[in-house]
Amino acid sequence: MRPYELIKAKRDGHPLPPGSIREFIAAYTRGDVPDYQMSALCMAVFFRGLDAEELGAWTRAMLESGEVLDLSETPGIKVDKHSTGGVGDKVSLSLAPLAAACGVPVPMISGRGLGHTGGTLDKLESIPGFRVDLSVADYRRLVRNVGACLIGQTSTLAPADKKLYALRDVTATVDCLPLIASSIMSKKLAEGIDALVLDVKVGSGAFMKRLEDARSLARTMISLGSAMNRKVTALLTDMDQPLGRAVGNALEVVEAVEMLRGQAPEDYTEVTLALTAEMLVLGGKAATPQQAREHLLRAVADGSALRKLKEIVQAQGGDPRAIDDFSRLPQARATRDVVAPVEGFVTAIDTEAVGLAAVALGAGRQRVDSLIDPAVGFTLLRKVGEPVKAGEPVVRVHYNNEGPLKDVQERLLAAYSFGREIPASRPLIVERLE
Predict the structure, then answer these.
(1) Which of 161, 175, 267, 373 is catalytic?
(2) What confidence score (pLDDT) does residue 371 get?
(3) Is residue 385 predicted with pLDDT exceeding 90?
(4) Domain match, 275 and 208 both
(5) pTM above 0.85, yes or no
(6) Known catalytic residue: 199?
(7) For residue 110, what pLDDT is reported?
């Protein structure tokens, strides 16, 4: 089928032949299919979906668009974690050194900010000198010798997804279940892992805002992994408010370091420990999540997890002194507080609105070629369930450019809801699937 015919068929709700899917994605990867036609097909998929056969063909075509790595020279079970994206989600920055310190090799290929959510690569690059553009040879060497490596997609690993990832970000086709599932699994299966832990976010700051959608996405990815002989476990975790207190690249690095010192916010610490514990179980380093948690707490207490983070930073060209001296990280030139208009409690936070405010401030991308300011972002001084007085600061804005400041402050104030009653608490770990 020609590209036009494929787009029209999906637009009209017809199933696509697997061979035509493979040919279309291969042609897009080569540059023979332009962005506007891929955008049209993605929008058709957004509205019409993909059945199991189509999704399997789409994922395999993405996976086989480039090299599939073999990390068999690294001893042990290689385990990665992937989050579907949230606001303030800096879990990978602390999870990778924690798992590696406990003996689980972590080959991690991460992404940049997408839509209203932050990106692991952007956060890592706020560490002076940190390189995420390493060669495949360096990636293999660091997984073997250091125990972890966090890089972006290379030109040879799932190149179809690398092109499509950026395109979806600017064409309103990010929050589409089959496109999310195929993007994640093609990338992860290409990186040489044996097992995968999924952090599927659900709530106002997630792409999956309803529990049933998050559960469906998790099951879809577990099935894709099983079809390709990979063990996959998923945790559905709450994203009805930002995770932790920091939103913004360098600010989130600070909070990730504090987690490895045992001094981070409770919600961020809990989600990180739960996900890393699943990695230790899949990696054969613990029999149960509870036993794994004990290993992780020891790695924090004895400093081995923090030392592993410094080792990763140094191995990837970064300045390990920034882990001890936060003044070496990018710093915003000024701060401005957003204050509560009434007395009471924070009853809700529109987390997607907070993420979009961060993009407006410069912490994320409005276009594919937008430059990110690594220093800017927010500190959430009050979160859901916490008391406030009228005129008391609820969010501190760290900024360099005053241009978007008024708009950002208005967005943040609109994102917060206040009331007289303490809202019911929500579980951080909503569900576990395997």
Answers:
(1) 161
(2) 85
(3) yes
(4) yes
(5) yes
(6) no
(7) 86
In degrees, rounded to 5, the angle at the alpha carbon of residue 221 between the alpha carbons of residues 217 and 225 is 170
Angle subtended at Cα 214 by Cα 49 and Cα 417, rounded to the nearest 5 degrees: 115
Q: Annotated catalytic, 210?
A: no
Structure tokens at 280: 């230790």
Q: Which of 10, 48, 82, 382 is catalytic?
A: 82
- Token pair for 12: 């009209």
Residue corresponding to tokens 């957003």: 338
Evaluate whether residue 262 is within a structural domain: yes
Kindly report, residue by residue over 198-257, the tens digit of the pLDDT. Answer: 999 999 888 889 999 999 999 999 999 998 899 999 999 999 999 999 999 999 999 999
* Domain housing 394: 330-419
Q: Which CATH number is 378's domain given?
A: 3.90.1170.30
* Total structural domains within the chain: 3
Range of weakest confidence among 73-77, 80-84, 152-156, 299-303: 152-156
Active site residue 161: yes
pLDDT > 70 fraction of the chain, expressed in percent and rounded: 99
Give the H or E element holding residue 154: none
pLDDT digits (tens, 9 = 90+) for 163-183: 998 899 789 898 788 998 998
Question: Do residues 320 and 343 share a domain?
Answer: no
- Secondary structure string (H, E, C) spanning 262-310: CCCCHHHHHHHHHHHHHHHHHCCCCCCHHHHHHHHHHHHHCCHHHHHHH
pLDDT at 323 over 90: yes
Cα–Cα distance, 182 to 21 (Å, whole number): 13
DSSP 16: P
Exposed e or buried b for every residue in 300-312, given b needs 16+ CB within 10 A? beeebbbbbbbbb
The catalytic residue among 48, 168, 201, 398 is 168
Count CA atoms closer than 13 A to 223's CA, side-chain side. 15
Give the domain CATH number at 190.
3.40.1030.10
Catalytic-labelled residue, pool 48, 78, 123, 187: 187
| Catalytic residue flag (residue 187) | yes
> Catalytic site residue 116?
no
